Amino acid sequence: MAASESALGEPETEARTYPRLLPAGDSAIVIELGSEIDPAINSQVFVLAELIQAEGIPAVIELVPTYRSLLVSYSPLVSKHDEIVDQLTAIIDRLEAAVESAGDVQVIELPVVYGGDDGPDLGLVAENAGLTNQEVIDIHSGVDYRVYMIGFAPGFPYLGGLDERIATPRLKTPRIRVPAGSVGIAESQTGVYPNVSPGGWQLIGRTAADLFDVTSDSPSLITPGSKVRFVPVKSHE
Amino acid sequence: MSDKSLSKATDRTIRVIQPGPMTLIQDRGRTGFQQLGVSVSGAVDVDSLDIGNRLVGNSFDAAALEVLLGGVEIEFSDDAIFAITGAELIASLDGVPVSAGVSYTAHAGSRLSLGMVSSGLRAYAAVAGGVDVPELLGSRSTHVASEIGGINGRALAEGDVLNIGEFTSTSGGGRMFEGEESSALSSELNIRVVLGPQDDEFSESAIETFLSSNFTVTDQSNRQGLRLDGPQIESKSGRYDIVSDAVVNGSIQIPGDGKPIILLADRQTTGGYAKIATVASIDLPKLGQAAPGSSVTFVAISVAEAQQLLSEHSERFNAAVLGKSVDSISVQVNGEEVSVGVAENATSQIAEINGNTYPISVDEYTPVD
Predict the structure, then answer these.
(1) Which of B11, B129, B259, B351 has the most CB atoms less than 10 A away?
(2) Domain A20-100 falls under CATH 3.40.800.10
(3) What is the second-level CATH architecture of the domain B188-315?
(4) A26, A52, A71: best to mutate for the B interface, most B CBs within 10 A
(5) ipTM surpassing 0.95, yes or no?
(6) Which residues of A touch B145 (CB under 8 A)?
(7) pLDDT tens, position by position, B164-190
(8) What is the pTM of this model?
């Protein structure tokens, strides 16, 4: 699993003010709303994405929201950089008000069978935490996890909010094949593999939910900006 | 988004006799789903794809074969119009040489064979009607890492049968692209970049090193990106990781070892390394042809300059004339009017009969006074 994250602060050398708009070449602009992994900043990213989406700027091709920034890709054959910057700046001016009036985000419930063949590392995670298996399950399923962004692979969510008591190092030797739907822990992250892939996360359970269907127009069950709740179930129905 | 006429099933097919090291079905890529972690993929030398599609009369969103290193043979089930563009190689139709950059008519049962690439990396074989695999999320492009698109998300294999989309134009081949050779093949690449978005993670002297040094494309390069070797680019803080954010086609990351990585079509959607610069769109196709060992230098230009270059490039492409590769004359054959022409191209002799253009072998030929 290459999905390693490090929350880094600012370089000591200079103070930056946010938001800042940076060119990512001639066909995209990055709007940075902060420099850290922070739920409030991340919420702003999604509100901003909605505002830009609603504006329907003809040159804009797609938006990619991430932890603390929004990538706006656009066609320079339709509008030039300065024009897009002006349009985006005008939208950013409305961001604060929009954040205040933003509604609750959607919570996506994923039924999970914890332990056993579905979660072969549950015992290891419990041992590492000095807890019982059931306590790990209760802690893991007792929180709504923020979907900070989706990346690394189709439908792969970067979830925030894991209780530090059950944070566990990665496996020393990654598995060659992690089944689709596996729910795992790596350091202080938790996540779910939408597809079969190699991976080094500690697997504590598995969901039978169809997380990513490439033949659907809305292919990903988990969407960026939503929240995920793992619901313990006895068996995959 | 896509031309409906391309998605209609036809009986016409291409059969893969010899797949080569890595032949992929690619179009202009799968845009719009990066926020769900779906890589864009698509042709890495998009200019060559565009020229190929233009030559055979397709719309720009048609899919073609992207042939890495050559060594491919395919068979047409029915008459078809095709064109070869991109990397240099020797191609032949039923043993008769064909030139790159010209559209030809192949007869039913004809075999098109692409030799090994002699310059560049990737050739494109476009066919009128496009290669018609099912569209997934609006594209036919193959992304091997996530097994999406093309044929089961993989490279072509011996025996694969590919549908050819419906084709309505009356063009019978015999077109030549008379625009500029935008993805001119060279082993010395001077790549224009726009600094940023994270150039402020690097000191002035590090940026100076980046812009004044020669880098070499290593063999650790693929459709995901080019790994370069050269002087180390040091970050100000000694850290290279940033909070992961979105990357674009041509993002130049500096990872912990200080050696640049240029991200290309198959890149993941997000990345955690600081990006010192971004390749100007006009120069991206060249990178798709950069073989290991190629040298790369960077020159910084402004966003406005990069956009101007792209606009001019696009205008030139749109204005480029599709010339006739053969001047033909009208003659009477058995009382019927037939248009006939013969010409010689860089690597082949070309015959045109009633608007269809065929490669021919001329073993003996006596000039007529």
Answers:
(1) B129
(2) no
(3) Beta Barrel (2.40)
(4) A26
(5) no
(6) 153
(7) 998 876 556 778 887 665 556 888 999
(8) 0.91
